[in-house]
Write a structure and sequence with these properties.
By secondary structure, this protein is of the alpha+beta class. It has 6 helices and 21 strands.
């Protein structure tokens, strides 16, 4: 009995010990555990990323101005053609018949013109004869040999002959006009016949063929496209769709790199030649076409390929850098606690802290996710960096949280510079101290309140 009682006492002591140990363990776990990254020095390359389509510099759609049936094709996909080379033939018999009919009408019109000219000469001769008879009759009438009636008849004949001359002259003009009309009809028929033979308008490569032999093309409403010819595939362009917020950083002459799915391991280089002002709006997103010229000597890249473009717009060398997750972190504290830390480390004065909450205090009360404001860059470059491109004059002010050796947090207000959307340049430390190697908090975890992992997504605020 005593042995059993002793066993129960030992078991009770063990249970109490376990309870005390668990209580201390959970109490110790209530302390936040922080995820941190170190501030370091290095280079930052800010880029604009976009997608675009590869196109030939000059692309011509070869069509037909006449309707008919394709009788022969002299070019196919990927065929190299020269300017003036025959690439297709439309069946010509109908157009040849039209031309023959037009030529026959022209010959008839010319014959009518000759007949009209002969009639004119005849009328002129008749007019001369009747005018001479009238003159003789008038002289005899004065001497009393001819009667007045005979004189009037001679005058009427002379006037009639003159009118016939005028009518014959009009017929000649009409016949000449008909000849010109028939000549024009012959030219139209000849032109239509010539259009049945399709020629290449430029030197280039056939990248599309839209017809087959025996197919009927109808050109009644619009010219059908038979071929698409790219002039020179060794010099091509990329039409990149760039966001309206990025076009201000893109300059003509900038060297860019891009990739294509066909050659994922290869980097291709081009140069910005133009930013077109014609805006495209899709679902309230405004984009502009940036034209990038590049050489394609091996003809590895084809028209229509999708290009993934990277345009470097700014570089900073040997600058102090912080992870973007540190800019987004906001400590899990009350507004009064944050305000107290701001006062302790000089981010706000005690006078400013009176009656003021951390939620409305200045810029970025709790990291980049807090309130933001824009500030003009004084002295612009800051941070000791060497900018390869002109810096944007507007920068952000943010607060990062430094983990001290005693595991407490210290806020530091900084002015940010350029970013590659993973790390950001510290252009200037405004309040507090931030040095290379300092631990910056990106997330926290506690046993009671669950986990708050480091920020892995999101986007840093734009300058």
């Amino acid at each position: 009995m005593k042995l059993l009682k002793r066993h129960w006492m030992i078991a009770g002591i063990v249970v109490v010990a376990i309870g005390v140990f668990a209580a201390f363990q959970f109490k110790s776990n209530d302390k936040a555990q922080y995820f941190t990254v170190k501030a370091d020095r290095g280079d930052i390359h800010e880029v604009v990323e976009a997608t675009g389509t590869i196109n030939a510099v000059t692309t011509v759609q070869v069509g037909s101005q006449v309707s008919g049936t394709i009788s022969r094709l002299y070019a196919d996909f990927n065929s190299r053609v020269k300017k003036g080379q025959v690439v297709a033939q439309i069946d010509p018999p109908l157009f040849e018949g039209t031309l023959l009919q037009a030529k026959a009408d022209l010959a008839n019109a010319r014959a009518n013109l000759i007949a009209a000219q002969a009639n004119l000469e005849k009328a002129r001769a008749t007019a001369i004869q009747t005018r001479a008879d009238y003159v003789r009759t008038a002289g005899l009438a004065k001497e009393g040999v001819m009667s007045q009636q005979q004189l009037d008849l001679a005058k009427a004949n002379a006037d009639t002959a003159d009118a016939a001359v005028s009518a014959a002259q009009a017929q000649v003009v009409q016949a000449a006009a008909q000849v010109q009309q028939k000549e024009a009809a012959v030219k139209v028929a000849q032109t239509n016949l010539d259009y049945t033979t399709i020629h290449a308008p430029i030197d280039g490569t056939v990248i599309a063929r839209n017809v087959d032999v025996g197919q009927t093309v109808a050109a009644s409403l619009q010219a059908p496209t038979l071929f698409t010819i790219a002039q020179d595939l060794t010099k091509m362009q990329v039409y990149a769709s760039t966001d309206e917020s990025d076009v201000g950083m893109i300059r003509t002459g900038q060297v860019v790199t891009f990739k294509v799915d066909a050659y994922p391991k290869d980097n291709f280089t081009g140069q910005v030649s133009q930013v077109r002002m014609n805006a495209t709006t899709v679902q309230n997103v405004v984009t502009y076409n940036t034209i990038i010229d590049f050489d394609n000597p091996e003809m590895k890249l084809f028209p229509g390929m999708t290009a993934y473009i990277t345009i470097p717009v700014a570089n900073a060398k040997g600058v102090l850098r912080v992870a973007n997750g540190a800019l987004r972190y906001k400590p899990d504290m009350t507004a009064d606690q944050i305000r107290a830390l701001y006062q302790k480390y000089g981010l706000i004065s005690s006078a400013q802290g009176q009656g003021q909450t951390a939620s409305n205090e200045g810029p970025n009360a709790g990291g980049a996710s807090g309130k933001q404001y824009r500030a003009k860059a004084q002295g612009a470059e800051g941070g000791g960096g060497d900018s390869g491109q002109q810096r944007t004059p507007r920068v952000d002010v943010a607060v990062v949280w430094k983990l001290r050796p005693d595991k407490t947090l210290e806020p530091v207000r900084i002015r940010t510079g350029i970013t590659d959307h993973t790390i950001t340049e510290v252009a200037q430390v405004l309040k507090g101290q931030l040095n290379e190697g300092d631990e910056l908090v990106t997330g926290a975890m506690t046993a009671t309140s669950g986990t708050r992992p480091p920020s892995m997504g999101g986007t840093t605020p734009r300058r």
